[in-house]
Write a structure and sequence with these properties.
- The chain has 2 domains: about 160 residues, Ribosomal Protein S5, domain 2; about 120 residues, Alpha-Beta Plaits.
- Strands 1, 2, 3, 4, 5, 6, 7, 8, 9, 10 and 11 form an 11-stranded mixed β-sheet that branches.
- It starts with 6 loop residues before the first strand and ends in an 11-residue tail after the last strand.
- The protein has 9 helices and 11 strands.
- The protein is of the alpha+beta class and about 300 residues long.
- A hairpin with a 4-residue loop joins strand 5 and strand 6.
- Bound molecules: 4-diphosphocytidyl-2-C-methyl-D-erythritol 2-phosphate (SUD) and adenosine-5'-diphosphate.
- The site of 4-diphosphocytidyl-2-C-methyl-D-erythritol 2-phosphate has 20 residues, from strand 1, strand 2 and helix 5.
- Pfam families: GHMP_kinases_C, GHMP_kinases_N.
- It is an enzyme of class 2 (transferase).
- Belongs to the GHMP kinase family. IspE subfamily.
Length: about 300
Protein backbone atom coordinates (compact mmCIF):
# COMPACT_ATOMS: atom_id res chain seq x y z
CA UNK A 1 0.00 0.00 0.00
CA UNK A 2 1.47 3.41 -0.93
CA UNK A 3 1.86 5.87 1.96
CA UNK A 4 -0.97 8.35 1.12
CA UNK A 5 0.99 11.13 2.83
CA UNK A 6 3.51 10.69 0.02
CA UNK A 7 1.04 10.33 -2.87
CA UNK A 8 -1.09 12.73 -4.90
CA UNK A 9 -3.58 12.44 -7.74
CA UNK A 10 -3.27 14.79 -10.73
CA UNK A 11 -6.76 15.08 -12.27
CA UNK A 12 -7.40 16.05 -15.89
CA UNK A 13 -8.50 19.65 -16.48
CA UNK A 14 -11.41 20.16 -18.86
CA UNK A 15 -12.09 23.57 -20.44
CA UNK A 16 -15.91 23.56 -20.61
CA UNK A 17 -15.70 26.73 -22.67
CA UNK A 18 -12.66 28.68 -23.81
CA UNK A 19 -12.91 32.19 -25.24
CA UNK A 20 -9.81 34.01 -26.45
CA UNK A 21 -10.60 37.57 -25.31
CA UNK A 22 -7.34 39.38 -26.13
CA UNK A 23 -3.61 39.14 -26.57
CA UNK A 24 -0.73 40.41 -24.42
CA UNK A 25 2.25 42.30 -25.83
CA UNK A 26 4.40 39.18 -25.26
CA UNK A 27 2.11 37.10 -27.50
CA UNK A 28 0.32 35.17 -24.73
CA UNK A 29 -3.45 35.09 -25.14
CA UNK A 30 -5.96 36.42 -22.62
CA UNK A 31 -8.56 33.77 -21.91
CA UNK A 32 -11.98 33.36 -20.38
CA UNK A 33 -12.52 29.70 -19.54
CA UNK A 34 -14.49 27.55 -17.14
CA UNK A 35 -12.10 24.80 -16.07
CA UNK A 36 -13.40 21.72 -14.27
CA UNK A 37 -11.70 18.50 -13.18
CA UNK A 38 -12.47 14.92 -14.16
CA UNK A 39 -11.98 11.59 -12.38
CA UNK A 40 -9.40 10.68 -15.05
CA UNK A 41 -6.00 11.34 -13.46
CA UNK A 42 -2.28 10.68 -13.27
CA UNK A 43 -0.80 9.60 -9.93
CA UNK A 44 2.40 10.80 -8.29
CA UNK A 45 4.31 9.16 -5.43
CA UNK A 46 7.47 10.17 -3.56
CA UNK A 47 10.27 8.07 -2.09
CA UNK A 48 12.70 10.04 0.08
CA UNK A 49 16.46 9.63 -0.17
CA UNK A 50 19.14 10.11 -2.83
CA UNK A 51 19.41 12.79 -5.49
CA UNK A 52 16.30 14.06 -7.32
CA UNK A 53 15.08 11.42 -9.79
CA UNK A 54 11.96 10.56 -11.79
CA UNK A 55 10.58 7.09 -12.52
CA UNK A 56 7.85 6.77 -15.16
CA UNK A 57 5.19 4.06 -15.22
CA UNK A 58 1.59 3.57 -16.40
CA UNK A 59 -0.04 3.16 -19.85
CA UNK A 60 0.94 6.61 -21.23
CA UNK A 61 4.50 6.70 -19.84
CA UNK A 62 6.05 5.84 -23.23
CA UNK A 63 5.09 9.25 -24.67
CA UNK A 64 7.29 10.91 -22.03
CA UNK A 65 10.35 8.67 -22.26
CA UNK A 66 12.18 11.17 -24.51
CA UNK A 67 10.99 14.26 -22.58
CA UNK A 68 14.19 16.11 -21.63
CA UNK A 69 12.69 18.25 -18.88
CA UNK A 70 9.65 16.69 -17.27
CA UNK A 71 7.39 19.26 -15.61
CA UNK A 72 7.47 17.21 -12.41
CA UNK A 73 11.25 17.69 -12.13
CA UNK A 74 10.99 21.38 -13.06
CA UNK A 75 8.41 21.82 -10.28
CA UNK A 76 10.67 20.02 -7.79
CA UNK A 77 13.70 22.15 -8.66
CA UNK A 78 11.69 25.38 -8.51
CA UNK A 79 10.22 24.53 -5.09
CA UNK A 80 13.62 23.53 -3.70
CA UNK A 81 15.14 26.79 -4.92
CA UNK A 82 12.30 28.87 -3.41
CA UNK A 83 12.63 26.99 -0.11
CA UNK A 84 16.44 27.32 -0.08
CA UNK A 85 17.09 23.58 0.09
CA UNK A 86 18.58 20.91 -2.15
CA UNK A 87 16.06 18.93 -4.21
CA UNK A 88 16.11 15.20 -3.49
CA UNK A 89 14.16 11.95 -3.52
CA UNK A 90 12.49 9.93 -6.26
CA UNK A 91 9.19 10.96 -7.83
CA UNK A 92 7.23 8.10 -9.38
CA UNK A 93 4.82 9.35 -12.05
CA UNK A 94 2.08 6.93 -13.08
CA UNK A 95 0.96 8.37 -16.42
CA UNK A 96 -2.63 7.71 -17.50
CA UNK A 97 -3.52 10.95 -19.32
CA UNK A 98 -2.48 11.32 -22.97
CA UNK A 99 0.40 13.76 -23.44
CA UNK A 100 -0.12 17.09 -25.27
CA UNK A 101 -3.85 16.58 -25.43
CA UNK A 102 -5.62 19.69 -24.06
CA UNK A 103 -6.47 18.26 -20.64
CA UNK A 104 -3.41 19.66 -18.88
CA UNK A 105 -1.85 16.39 -17.77
CA UNK A 106 1.62 17.91 -17.49
CA UNK A 107 0.21 20.92 -15.63
CA UNK A 108 -1.68 18.64 -13.25
CA UNK A 109 1.51 16.62 -12.63
CA UNK A 110 3.49 19.80 -11.92
CA UNK A 111 0.83 21.05 -9.48
CA UNK A 112 0.72 17.62 -7.80
CA UNK A 113 4.52 17.71 -7.41
CA UNK A 114 4.34 21.12 -5.70
CA UNK A 115 1.63 19.88 -3.28
CA UNK A 116 3.38 16.58 -2.60
CA UNK A 117 6.89 17.96 -2.08
CA UNK A 118 5.62 20.80 0.07
CA UNK A 119 4.37 18.06 2.44
CA UNK A 120 7.21 15.58 1.97
CA UNK A 121 9.89 18.21 2.58
CA UNK A 122 8.03 19.52 5.66
CA UNK A 123 7.42 22.99 4.18
CA UNK A 124 3.63 23.02 4.69
CA UNK A 125 3.15 25.64 1.97
CA UNK A 126 -0.50 26.26 1.08
CA UNK A 127 -1.97 27.17 -2.34
CA UNK A 128 -1.38 30.94 -1.93
CA UNK A 129 2.35 30.39 -1.38
CA UNK A 130 2.67 27.82 -4.19
CA UNK A 131 0.65 29.86 -6.74
CA UNK A 132 3.49 32.15 -7.96
CA UNK A 133 5.70 29.08 -8.50
CA UNK A 134 2.84 27.35 -10.33
CA UNK A 135 2.39 30.32 -12.69
CA UNK A 136 6.09 30.15 -13.61
CA UNK A 137 5.69 26.51 -14.65
CA UNK A 138 2.81 27.11 -17.11
CA UNK A 139 -0.44 29.00 -17.67
CA UNK A 140 -2.54 25.99 -16.62
CA UNK A 141 -0.62 25.03 -13.47
CA UNK A 142 -2.28 27.53 -11.03
CA UNK A 143 -5.79 26.13 -11.60
CA UNK A 144 -4.45 22.60 -11.09
CA UNK A 145 -3.09 23.43 -7.60
CA UNK A 146 -6.52 23.02 -5.96
CA UNK A 147 -7.97 20.96 -8.86
CA UNK A 148 -11.41 22.43 -8.25
CA UNK A 149 -13.66 24.02 -10.89
CA UNK A 150 -12.73 27.68 -11.46
CA UNK A 151 -13.22 30.47 -13.93
CA UNK A 152 -9.84 31.26 -15.50
CA UNK A 153 -8.93 34.78 -16.64
CA UNK A 154 -5.73 36.58 -17.60
CA UNK A 155 -3.47 34.05 -19.30
CA UNK A 156 -4.87 31.41 -16.92
CA UNK A 157 -3.50 32.64 -13.58
CA UNK A 158 -6.49 34.79 -12.52
CA UNK A 159 -8.93 32.41 -10.84
CA UNK A 160 -12.46 33.16 -9.65
CA UNK A 161 -15.53 31.21 -8.54
CA UNK A 162 -17.08 28.75 -10.98
CA UNK A 163 -20.81 28.01 -11.19
CA UNK A 164 -21.76 25.16 -8.82
CA UNK A 165 -21.69 22.04 -11.00
CA UNK A 166 -24.75 19.76 -11.13
CA UNK A 167 -24.62 15.95 -11.10
CA UNK A 168 -23.30 15.39 -14.61
CA UNK A 169 -21.25 12.82 -16.48
CA UNK A 170 -18.29 13.35 -18.72
CA UNK A 171 -16.88 11.31 -21.62
CA UNK A 172 -13.33 12.15 -22.75
CA UNK A 173 -11.99 10.98 -26.10
CA UNK A 174 -8.67 11.55 -27.84
CA UNK A 175 -7.81 10.32 -31.36
CA UNK A 176 -4.20 9.67 -30.30
CA UNK A 177 -2.75 12.59 -32.23
CA UNK A 178 -0.69 14.97 -30.04
CA UNK A 179 -1.33 18.68 -30.62
CA UNK A 180 1.21 21.28 -29.48
CA UNK A 181 -0.49 24.21 -27.69
CA UNK A 182 1.65 26.97 -29.32
CA UNK A 183 0.83 25.66 -32.83
CA UNK A 184 -2.91 25.82 -32.13
CA UNK A 185 -2.73 29.40 -30.76
CA UNK A 186 -0.67 30.34 -33.85
CA UNK A 187 -3.25 28.78 -36.18
CA UNK A 188 -6.04 30.72 -34.44
CA UNK A 189 -4.10 33.95 -34.90
CA UNK A 190 -3.73 33.20 -38.64
CA UNK A 191 -7.44 32.34 -39.02
CA UNK A 192 -8.80 35.25 -36.95
CA UNK A 193 -6.08 37.91 -36.66
CA UNK A 194 -7.28 40.44 -34.06
CA UNK A 195 -10.66 38.71 -33.73
CA UNK A 196 -11.53 38.17 -30.09
CA UNK A 197 -14.59 36.84 -28.26
CA UNK A 198 -16.50 38.39 -25.37
CA UNK A 199 -16.47 36.80 -21.90
CA UNK A 200 -19.19 34.20 -21.41
CA UNK A 201 -22.25 34.93 -19.27
CA UNK A 202 -22.72 32.05 -16.81
CA UNK A 203 -25.05 31.63 -13.80
CA UNK A 204 -23.95 31.01 -10.18
CA UNK A 205 -25.17 27.40 -10.29
CA UNK A 206 -26.76 24.80 -12.57
CA UNK A 207 -29.66 22.65 -11.34
CA UNK A 208 -28.97 19.81 -13.74
CA UNK A 209 -26.77 18.71 -16.62
CA UNK A 210 -29.40 19.82 -19.19
CA UNK A 211 -29.33 23.43 -17.94
CA UNK A 212 -25.53 23.34 -17.91
CA UNK A 213 -25.41 22.04 -21.50
CA UNK A 214 -27.86 24.74 -22.70
CA UNK A 215 -25.74 27.56 -21.22
CA UNK A 216 -22.47 26.07 -22.44
CA UNK A 217 -23.95 25.69 -25.94
CA UNK A 218 -24.12 29.51 -26.07
CA UNK A 219 -20.33 29.61 -25.53
CA UNK A 220 -17.58 27.87 -27.49
CA UNK A 221 -13.96 26.88 -27.68
CA UNK A 222 -12.17 29.39 -29.90
CA UNK A 223 -9.31 26.92 -30.39
CA UNK A 224 -11.57 24.21 -31.84
CA UNK A 225 -11.57 25.39 -35.49
CA UNK A 226 -7.78 25.96 -35.60
CA UNK A 227 -7.22 22.57 -33.95
CA UNK A 228 -9.44 20.87 -36.57
CA UNK A 229 -7.44 22.63 -39.32
CA UNK A 230 -4.24 21.09 -37.87
CA UNK A 231 -5.78 17.76 -36.88
CA UNK A 232 -8.96 16.82 -38.82
CA UNK A 233 -9.47 13.77 -36.53
CA UNK A 234 -10.83 16.20 -33.90
CA UNK A 235 -13.94 16.62 -36.08
CA UNK A 236 -14.38 12.81 -36.15
CA UNK A 237 -14.14 12.65 -32.36
CA UNK A 238 -16.74 15.41 -31.97
CA UNK A 239 -19.09 13.66 -34.40
CA UNK A 240 -18.69 10.34 -32.56
CA UNK A 241 -19.39 11.97 -29.18
CA UNK A 242 -22.50 13.74 -30.53
CA UNK A 243 -23.80 10.42 -31.87
CA UNK A 244 -23.61 8.73 -28.43
CA UNK A 245 -27.07 8.25 -26.87
CA UNK A 246 -27.57 10.75 -24.04
CA UNK A 247 -24.83 13.17 -25.13
CA UNK A 248 -26.04 16.69 -24.22
CA UNK A 249 -23.08 18.65 -25.60
CA UNK A 250 -19.73 17.85 -27.22
CA UNK A 251 -16.76 20.20 -27.42
CA UNK A 252 -12.97 20.18 -27.58
CA UNK A 253 -11.00 20.88 -24.37
CA UNK A 254 -8.12 23.39 -24.29
CA UNK A 255 -5.95 23.28 -27.40
CA UNK A 256 -7.05 19.69 -28.14
CA UNK A 257 -7.15 17.13 -29.43
CA UNK A 258 -9.15 15.65 -26.47
CA UNK A 259 -12.89 16.35 -26.69
CA UNK A 260 -15.54 15.93 -24.01
CA UNK A 261 -19.20 14.95 -24.05
CA UNK A 262 -21.59 15.98 -21.27
CA UNK A 263 -24.10 13.44 -19.91
CA UNK A 264 -26.84 13.32 -17.23
CA UNK A 265 -24.80 11.19 -14.77
CA UNK A 266 -21.31 9.69 -14.36
CA UNK A 267 -22.81 6.20 -14.85
CA UNK A 268 -24.39 7.22 -18.17
CA UNK A 269 -21.06 8.66 -19.31
CA UNK A 270 -19.10 5.55 -18.28
CA UNK A 271 -21.53 3.36 -20.28
CA UNK A 272 -21.41 5.63 -23.34
CA UNK A 273 -17.59 5.79 -23.46
CA UNK A 274 -17.45 2.03 -24.18
CA UNK A 275 -19.12 2.64 -27.59
CA UNK A 276 -16.25 4.81 -28.87
CA UNK A 277 -13.53 3.28 -31.11
CA UNK A 278 -11.07 1.27 -29.01
CA UNK A 279 -8.15 2.77 -30.99
CA UNK A 280 -8.88 6.09 -29.26
CA UNK A 281 -8.04 7.01 -25.68
CA UNK A 282 -11.45 7.15 -23.99
CA UNK A 283 -12.76 7.62 -20.49
CA UNK A 284 -16.20 8.05 -18.88
CA UNK A 285 -17.12 9.17 -15.36
CA UNK A 286 -17.80 12.31 -13.36
CA UNK A 287 -16.34 15.59 -12.15
CA UNK A 288 -14.02 15.76 -9.14
CA UNK A 289 -12.99 18.48 -6.73
CA UNK A 290 -9.63 18.34 -4.99
CA UNK A 291 -9.25 14.82 -6.39
CA UNK A 292 -12.53 13.54 -4.87
CA UNK A 293 -15.75 12.77 -6.78
CA UNK A 294 -18.40 15.52 -6.68
CA UNK A 295 -21.26 13.03 -7.17
CA UNK A 296 -21.69 9.26 -7.06
CA UNK A 297 -21.94 7.26 -10.30
CA UNK A 298 -25.75 7.58 -10.16
CA UNK A 299 -25.51 11.35 -9.68
CA UNK A 300 -26.11 11.52 -5.88
CA UNK A 301 -23.95 14.01 -3.92
CA UNK A 302 -20.77 12.14 -2.92
CA UNK A 303 -20.71 11.29 0.78
CA UNK A 304 -24.53 11.64 1.06
C1 LIG B 1 -4.83 26.15 -23.86
C2 LIG B 1 -4.88 25.78 -22.41
C3 LIG B 1 -6.26 26.20 -21.82
O1 LIG B 1 -6.41 25.80 -20.48
O2 LIG B 1 -4.77 24.40 -22.12
P1 LIG B 1 -4.03 23.11 -22.79
O3 LIG B 1 -4.50 22.93 -24.18
O4 LIG B 1 -2.56 23.35 -22.74
O5 LIG B 1 -4.41 21.94 -21.91
C4 LIG B 1 -3.80 26.58 -21.60
O6 LIG B 1 -4.00 27.95 -21.72
C5 LIG B 1 -2.37 26.28 -21.96
O7 LIG B 1 -1.65 26.26 -20.77
P2 LIG B 1 -0.19 25.60 -20.69
O8 LIG B 1 -0.18 24.32 -21.46
O9 LIG B 1 0.21 25.57 -19.25
O10 LIG B 1 0.60 26.65 -21.50
P3 LIG B 1 2.10 27.20 -21.34
O11 LIG B 1 3.02 26.04 -21.21
O12 LIG B 1 2.14 28.29 -20.33
O13 LIG B 1 2.29 27.86 -22.78
C6 LIG B 1 2.52 27.14 -23.96
C7 LIG B 1 2.34 28.06 -25.13
O14 LIG B 1 0.94 28.27 -25.39
C8 LIG B 1 0.66 29.61 -25.76
N1 LIG B 1 -0.25 30.21 -24.78
C9 LIG B 1 -0.51 29.58 -23.60
C10 LIG B 1 -1.41 30.13 -22.71
C11 LIG B 1 -2.02 31.36 -23.03
N2 LIG B 1 -2.90 31.92 -22.21
N3 LIG B 1 -1.75 31.97 -24.20
C12 LIG B 1 -0.87 31.41 -25.09
O15 LIG B 1 -0.64 31.98 -26.15
C13 LIG B 1 2.01 30.29 -25.85
O16 LIG B 1 2.44 30.16 -27.19
C14 LIG B 1 2.89 29.47 -24.94
O17 LIG B 1 4.23 29.54 -25.31
N1 LIG C 1 4.63 15.17 -16.79
C1 LIG C 1 4.32 15.57 -18.03
N2 LIG C 1 3.18 15.15 -18.61
C2 LIG C 1 2.85 15.57 -19.86
N3 LIG C 1 3.62 16.38 -20.61
C3 LIG C 1 4.76 16.82 -20.10
C4 LIG C 1 5.17 16.42 -18.80
N4 LIG C 1 6.34 17.01 -18.55
C5 LIG C 1 6.66 17.73 -19.64
N5 LIG C 1 5.72 17.63 -20.58
C6 LIG C 1 5.72 18.33 -21.90
O1 LIG C 1 4.64 19.28 -21.85
C7 LIG C 1 3.91 19.28 -23.08
C8 LIG C 1 2.43 19.58 -22.78
O2 LIG C 1 1.92 18.49 -22.08
P1 LIG C 1 0.43 18.33 -21.55
O3 LIG C 1 0.25 19.01 -20.25
O4 LIG C 1 0.12 16.87 -21.57
O5 LIG C 1 -0.41 19.07 -22.68
P2 LIG C 1 -1.83 19.72 -22.63
O6 LIG C 1 -1.75 20.85 -21.64
O7 LIG C 1 -2.11 20.17 -24.03
O8 LIG C 1 -2.77 18.64 -22.18
C9 LIG C 1 4.15 17.90 -23.68
O9 LIG C 1 4.23 17.97 -25.07
C10 LIG C 1 5.48 17.44 -23.09
O10 LIG C 1 6.53 17.68 -23.99
Amino acid sequence: MPDTALAETAPAKINLHLHVVGRRADGYHLLDSLAAFAGAADALRYRPGGPLALALEGPEAGALAAEPDNLVLRAARLLAEAAGRAPGGTLVLEKHLPVASGIGGGSADAAAALRLLSRAWGLGWETARLAPLAARLGADVPVCLDSRAARMGGVGERLSAAPALPPAGLVLANPRVPLATPAVFRARQEMRPGGFSAEAALPAAWADAGAMARDLAACGNDLEAPAIALCPAVADVLAALRALPGCLLARMSGSGATCFGLFETPAAAAGAARHLPSAWWRWGGGFTTGGRPLYSAAGEPAGA
